[in-house]
Specification:
Mean pLDDT: 94
Largest sheet: 6 strands, antiparallel
Structural class: alpha+beta
Helix content: 10-25%
Number of helices: 5
Strand content: 25-35%
Radius of gyration: 18 Å
Low-confidence stretches: none
Length: 234
């Protein structure tokens, strides 16, 4: 990190930057609550909204907004090349799904806990794990569960195939997401209020254990990833 972040933040322009290390983004300029994380190498665009303790940004790959604290602005480097999304066909994505699934299994084997806003591991929230799993093969999803639901192609539960996403929540909004593994099972990161703190595998059934039943009661539907996210902001 560079030595004088206060002077750096004053000199930041509304432009595109790279993250030199894994970075926390917060949901307000007070920087008290994690919104998401940016892995080293990600692109973000600094806006003109600079506060005393933070600067407003949005991540280029998924358009997600947040605030970078004054202490971390030295971890930003002006991008030499702008971010450009990679286009995937539906058939290309299908071939990559086994690697996506393998990523979630490997993540589960590491010591982890549920972290609201977590996307870089070992600690993830539900949609952060899904985003990280797909981006491990170059496919970008939107950040939050409800955004991922809107982004995917809706399918019925009867049509589920390994690599599809399953959504849970209220009738109004998806608040949780998992990755279907086949044989009626899915993998996801869930909080301790549901009986587990971290990544686990549950059954999509009202006949399962307490955690499985709790989520099954909130089942909304499923979606298939058929494309990679293309940023809307420029």
């Amino acid at each position: 990190m560079l030595s004088n972040p206060k002077s750096i933040i004053q000199n930041l322009s509304a432009a595109e930057y790279n993250c030199l290390a894994d970075l926390n983004l917060y949901d307000s300029p007070e920087c008290t609550r994690l919104a998401t994380q940016a892995a080293s190498g990600r692109h973000l665009r600094v806006t003109s909204n600079h506060q005393d303790a933070a600067v407003e940004v949005y991540l280029c790959e998924d358009d997600y907004p947040g605030w970078v604290s004054l202490a971390d602005v030295g971890l930003l480097q002006r991008a030499t090349l702008p971010y450009r999304a990679t286009i995937f066909s539906e058939s290309e994505i299908k071939k990559l799904l086994p690697e996506v699934i393998a990523f979630t299994h490997k993540a589960m084997q590491q010591s982890n806990y549920y972290l609201w806003g977590g996307t870089v591991g070992p600690n993830y929230d539900c949609s952060g794990l899904m985003q990280a799993a797909f981006v491990s093969v170059g496919i970008w999803l939107p950040r939050d569960a409800y955004q991922q639901e809107a982004f995917t192609q809706p399918i019925s539960i009867a049509e589920l195939e390994p690599g599809d996403l399953i959504f849970f929540g209220t009738p109004q909004k998806a608040t949780h997401v998992g990755l279907y593994l086949g044989d009626g099972c899915y993998i996801h990161s869930s909080g301790k209020d549901k009986g587990r703190n971290g990544i686990g595998i549950d059954r999509l059934s009202e006949q399962g254990d307490e955690v499985s039943r709790s989520y099954y009661q909130q089942l909304r539907g499923a979606g298939r990833v058929i494309k990679s996210y293309e940023p809307q902001r420029r």
